[in-house]
Specification:
single chain; 14% strand; 11 strands; 411 residues; two-stranded antiparallel ribbon; 14 helices; seven-stranded mixed sheet; alpha/beta
Length: 411
């Protein structure tokens, strides 16, 4: 029992927060079945000590007083906690065999409850209370209707892991003199695990421009520190989280915050998860914003919240990466940037692939200028080849793809 107890203590330490859980899922992915298999194996071993033929409990009292039961429900509590902190891992645990074990356990507890309910002495009532607590704990983790299906394969588990981006600035900052800090910023990004079925689902996965803009921000923090920031069409939220990490690391008294937005509800939920696993909840939040609801005529700045349909305050900086898939997106994005920025000093930084790979981007500059924005364009490859590092791991990137950096100002 000591070995099992030590395993539980180790796992509790490793799985104490959403970020620790994400990192542990990555570490255990090398083993067969990954972290879910490890956790369910420990659950199975603990249950077998209770239910094994060599140590079978023949009475309610023996069942409730044996130390093996306490260990078993300690493990169930751990699995319930990690499933609540990381629903992706929770689904994997359920499909790795935990539901079969829990069903057997629940049926056995119900049998003992029936026995206790047929007795009349005070001791039986105390045992009944204990059994009801056990039943509640087991049922909290038992979700058969939500998790039907075969266990995930090793490949499927690997594909469901958070992506790890160790982002160095990748380019000399505009206002840097001499040496700079090239220590990488580690960001974890979960993608939406549901299969894409329409153009509205493009935010489920990572796109190359997000990496480029994130690296540029890390090299040029002066553009966002001490300012209010809005990321639009955020997808998985890498850019906004990179900004938030800069805010969290900033020791000045000037406080910054970033609002990370998208229009797809599943994407918004995933952004919220990524904010948590990167420990930036104090400087980042998520909201719903639909480009097509913005008017493009708010001179003094205000944008419409897609959830409350109320106006929100304008921001100092707008960030966007790969937000255009068709001409109407370019028109709506230009209006959104104009509305969201404060006048005179408001500035947007946008990175998008060229028209060969993103329909509609060819009219983006014109549409920005039409609503009253000034635009400067630079080919990303001319800024630094390092900015394109890691882009091969993203969706839609091909060798030779040209990306453009847009520096946009509201006058």
């Amino acid at each position: 029992m000591t070995m099992t107890t030590n395993k539980i203590a180790t796992l509790e330490d490793q799985l104490s927060s959403p970020r620790q859980i994400a990192l542990s899922r990555i570490d255990y992915a090398r083993s067969d079945g990954g972290l879910p298999a490890v956790l369910v194996s420990i659950l199975s071993d603990a249950y077998n000590k209770v239910d094994g033929s060599d140590a079978r409990m023949n009475s309610v009292q023996e069942f409730c007083s044996d130390s093996s039961i306490e260990t078993l429900f300690h493990i169930i509590s751990l699995l319930t906690n990690v499933s609540q902190l990381d629903n992706t891992l929770g689904e994997e645990i359920s499909r790795a065999g935990s539901q079969t074990i829990l069903k057997r356990l629940i049926n056995r507890i119900k049998e003992y409850i029936t026995i206790c309910e047929g007795a009349t002495n005070q001791h039986s009532e105390e045992l009944l209370d204990k059994l009801m607590d056990y039943l509640d704990s087991a049922c909290e983790l038992y979700t058969p209707m939500q998790t039907r299906g075969m266990p995930f394969t090793k490949s499927e588990i690997e594909n469901r892991l958070p992506l790890v981006y160790n982002l160095s600035p990748g380019v000399q900052g505009e206002e840097e003199d001499g040496e700079r800090d090239d220590h990488p910023t580690t960001i974890l990004i979960s993608q939406v695990t549901v299969r894409q079925s329409s153009q509205g689902d493009v935010g489920y996965v990572m796109w190359p421009s997000a990496i480029v803009l994130s690296r540029w921000l890390l090299a040029n923090p002066q553009h966002i520190l001490g300012k209010s920031v809005l990321e639009i069409g955020a997808g998985c939220g890498l850019v906004g989280i990179a900004a938030a990490r800069l805010f969290a690391q900033n020791n000045s008294e000037e406080k910054s915050c970033v609002t990370i937005t998208d229009v797809n509800d599943l994407v918004i939920d995933n952004i919220a998860k990524n904010i948590v696993i990167n420990d930036v909840s104090e400087v980042a939040c998520v909201a719903k914003l639909d480009f097509y609801e913005q008017t493009g005529d708010n001179e003094f700045g205000k944008w419409i919240d897609g959830l409350t349909f109320e106006y929100r305050d304008p921001v100092d900086v707008v960030l966007a990466a790969d937000i255009i898939c068709q001409p109407s997106d370019a028109i709506a994005a230009a209006k959104t940037i104009y509305d969201a920025l404060v006048p005179n000093t408001g500035r947007a930084f946008v990175v998008c692939a060229d028209s060969e790979h993103r329909f509609g981007i060819e009219i983006f500059q014109e549409e920005c200028e039409r609503v009253g924005l000034e635009v400067r364009m630079t080919n990303v490859a001319d800024m630094s080849e390092d900015l394109l590092s890691d882009c091969h791991s993203t969706s839609g990137y091909v060798d030779g793809m040209n990306l453009t950096f847009y520096d946009i100002q509201k006058r």
